[in-house]
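Quick log. Single chain, no ligands specified.
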Amino acid sequence: MEKALGLYVHVPFCKSKCAYCDFYSLPGKEDRMDAYTEAVCTHLRGFAPRAAGYQVDTVYFGGGTPSLLGPERLNRIRGTMQEAYRVAEDAEVTLEANPDSVGDWLSDLRGFHRISLGMQSADDGELRAIGRIHTFQQVRTAVERIRQAGFGNLSLDLIYGLPAQTLDRWQSSVSAALDLEPEHLSCYGLKLEPGTPLYQRREALAIPDEELQSACYLWTVEELARRGFRQYEISNFAKPGRVSRHNWKYWTLGEYAGFGPGAHSDFGGERYAWSRDLEGYCQGVQDGNLSFAERQRISPEERVREWLMLSLRTGDGVDLTEYVRQSERSPERFGPFFDQCVQAGYAVRRGSRVALTPRGFLVSNAIIGEVLELHEKE
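-> predicted structure:
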């Protein structure tokens, strides 16, 4: 039986760099798009023999702004996958896009099924404060074009905890997003990453405090549930049957292979990432000598730890029967602690499963840390 594989393509091109972004992205490098496309296609073909026993069931173009590549380059990369790999007929193929880069050309795409659109906010002032170059009207126009092109699976990204944001403003953004009738929503709390412009200006910014951000989060969970969305991971909500299958691989330790500078992989028991260097990536593919930014062989014990951590981030929670199978250890070590979490309203029990509640997700780092400590005790 063939194993399932996800393919991830990191597209490092952007019109401009957002003030909060620490992903590998390069504004003003459009002249290198053709060389990049050639390198990714060559890399895909070269890796294909290692995936001979796999069927590709998800593909994800992330970035950066993958939609900047345009239909010809995107179709070429997608076509290379189709030629070199066994791609399932019902494979989920996602393209990330920014509202300002979505054009009528979407109907020219071949083999793409899902769009993930970076809306972030419905407030133009908030968008400017974080360096976004689109407006909410462009979001509306982009969604119209996405629907007109025949895409029936749309995800919108939103960020709460933006500078000077209030609960009312956040609620207005969520309501505006819901009016666009997406099938999926990703709602992330703003993270001030070292090295970003927003981090450097953090002392001068009116960043909402923890209490306000918690209120935004809990209201969102309740409102989206009322509107028919299931919270299947801390930050992700989907209509029935619309869970992001590619991202679900990350949370369930499925295998995926990454292509493009800065792309990450988890394949063949090894986790690795390519160097964040566009020119080095293109040259490395040509020479057959790609440079790793990181590379690690994952031990069985580390896999159990990862499984515990990631399971507790999902709406399904951790299955204690599966824990016994994977670790050959008794789940009784967790009993008193999980009982405390249930009593505090941080978790619920569903048969052999323990899942965190929305309030539990707010303190998930502490809960997961305690679970990992209990796991390691003899």
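The mean pLDDT is 96.
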